[in-house]
Target: Resolvase-like protein
Amino acid sequence: MLTVLGGIAQFEREMMLERQREGVARAKAAGKYNGRKPTPDAIR
Model:
């Protein structure tokens, strides 16, 4: 039973990540995606 629930959870996670990647790609194509702001460590 837990194996089935784990498989469903893994599948749902993969679907969420795929939708996120598609959204980021769409935003980049529209020129609206800038990514994360640089951290103080990255600026040095």
